[in-house]
Amino acid sequence: MIEGGGQGLFRQEPLSPSSKPPPPTPYRGVKGEFEGRVGDPLRKTSPGPPLKPLRILLTGPPQCGKTTVVQKVVARFPGQAAGFYTREVRQQGIRLGFEIITLAGATALLSHVDFPGPHRVGKYGVNLENFHRVALPALEVGPGVDLIVVDEVGKMECLSARFVAAMESLWRQPAPLLVTVAEKGGGYIATLKGKPDKTLLTVTPANRDELPTRILELLRTR
Q1: Could you read off the pLDDT tens digit of each residue along the chain, which spans 222 residues?
Q2: How far apart are CA 118 and CA 115, in angstroms?
Q3: Which of 50, 85, 147, 166 is 20 to 30 A from 26 (CA-CA)?
Q4: Distance (Å, rounded) from C-alpha 168 to C-alpha 162?
Q5: 205 φ/ψ angles, rounded to the nearest 5 degrees
């Protein structure tokens, strides 16, 4: 038999002076949005500054390997890339011009020694109609595009005001950019290399094999 009635069952002994409640449990909200301690009013943290879009520019003299670096990055890039690169057109070892190849597989001649017309760079006639028809649509940032590739920003491409406008538009987009740019040249070539908030890498025979891995690491952190 239990004496003292029902109230004695729930009688709480007073805490001794040395007894203290356990410390409150710290917590941190999802993605750090809220932080504090259990029982405290919610305190919203101030978000850090957003990361600026990644702009990687590759420069260097002709035939230093810029396009090869770009192709290796695209081959290993885990996301979806869009854009274009240029390739020499040769016959019996003689360079006759350049062609555009989009990452979606479309091709067109950009320049050739046999092209007539007013647009010329050195001995090459430049076909801006081909360039506008194939290259510019490849620079449109569609849904799911994680990287835009532009190979290259050179004297031929910069003959097109539409291309320059497209590059300026891309610079304002959130998608990362991987761009090759001529080593020498004024106008938009100099403007692009003078832009802030970019990573400018010079491709050399000594570093071109390791650059794809370095670039992929930069892309992985964004």
Answers
A1: 444 444 444 455 555 555 555 555 444 443 333 344 444 454 444 555 567 899 999 999 999 999 999 999 999 999 999 999 999 999 999 999 999 999 999 999 999 999 998 999 999 999 999 999 999 999 999 899 999 999 999 999 999 999 999 999 999 999 999 999 999 999 999 999 999 999 999 999 999 999 999 999 999 987
A2: 10
A3: 50
A4: 10
A5: -60, -25
